Amino acid sequence: MFEQMQKAEGDKILALMGLYRADERANKIDLGVGVYKDSQGQTPIMTSIGKAENWQISHQASKTYVGLAGDVGFNDAITRLALGNDYDKSRIRTQQAPGGSGALRIIAEMLAGAKEGATIWVPDPTWPNHMPIFGTAGLTIKTYPYFNAETGQVRFDDMAEALKAIPEQDIVLLHGCCHNPTGANLTIDEWKIVGEILVERNLLPFIDIAYQGFGDGLEADAAGLRHLAGVVPEMVVALSCSKNFAVYCDRVGAAILMGRNGDEADKAISQLALVARKSYSMPPNHGAAVVRTILESDELRGEWQTELESMRLRMLTLRTGLADALRQKTNSERFDFVAEHRGMFSRLGLTAAQVDQLREQHAIYMVGDSRINVAGLPDDGLDELAAAIASVL
Ligand code: LMR
């Protein structure tokens, strides 16, 4: 059987991780995969997570199956983290998922099963793994304009025009905050316009929120999502805890469904549970239980929020530092957008050849489309980094 197979072309982000690890140059800089790093270049376990894990391990009495929906306490707490305390509970159902990717996949498969030829519109550009996930799940994929590479801004007018032309009942993918890969985000007024178009055109919003707390703060980063929850009749959300709780390898995520009413929400969640059962059955428990432990304890929650906020502020400082250094080294304002972007990423607008040159000659690793992970920037090496970038322009 295997002899008939072609070698698969690996995921570019993960391939870059491998290249970086194999590079023996001492001065190498990893701006590739979206993993938070501290000033030592480490991705430590958050102190609040460590405490919750200890508590969890000493109190867990059994490892029996939990159920298809996963940890219901986690589902409740994470839904409140995303939607706030005032959402309409009667219409919302949540199912724990194996990471944000798992949530994207099961929701997509549920939607593909609900409607023949179901089509999803994704921003151009979007996270490269969106396409394989949605395509494999059976959705047809189309794109709408999102980013102006020249200015580093959202092409909002073009985006709004394109959304107005999407056929009724199609699905529209929106990044809840901290757009990956560009770092350019919608303002709350733009979210409101998007909400009007979605309602007018009878389109289903599919929100991918993987970086809540990394942009403008936990509440501000959820503002667009919460606004939509108040105006659209139906919505689906794929949420990841990988980054904001730094539980990457524990695979903690959630699929949140909002129906027109409780009956429809129940039908949808029953379909979602079936998709999960057919794919992996039940989600892993440990990480979700740890996140729940944090969110249910005032003390641990406070500690986690402080840690998260310091990660966010560190990324903002690095953004300003890099924008300043690039302004100086290039003698231009070309890269000023880096300071305005929010979240973990910015796309610098370099060519693939320039990205290769940076990797080969300067041991600087970024994704081929020139996306950088801001958290990987070296605190005390921004001038050298900016000089290297300027040298390849
Ligand atoms: C990224 O975009 O780098 C992260 O979301 C990690 C991944 O799985 O691609």
Automatic annotation (TrEMBL):
Residues 27-389 form the Aminotransferase class I/classII large domain. It comes from the Bacteria. Its cofactor is pyridoxal 5'-phosphate. InterPro entries: Aminotransferase_I/II_large, Asp_trans, PyrdxlP-dep_Trfase, PyrdxlP-dep_Trfase_major, PyrdxlP-dep_Trfase_small. Keywords: Aminotransferase, Pyridoxal phosphate, Transferase. Transmembrane segments: none annotated. CDD domains: AAT_like (cd00609). GO terms for cellular component: cytosol. GO terms for molecular function: identical protein binding; L-aspartate:2-oxoglutarate aminotransferase activity; L-tyrosine-2-oxoglutarate transaminase activity; pyridoxal phosphate binding. One of its GO terms (biological process) is L-phenylalanine biosynthetic process from chorismate via phenylpyruvate. The keyword Transferase applies. Belongs to the class-I pyridoxal-phosphate-dependent aminotransferase family. Homodimer. This is Aromatic amino acid aminotransferase apoenzyme.
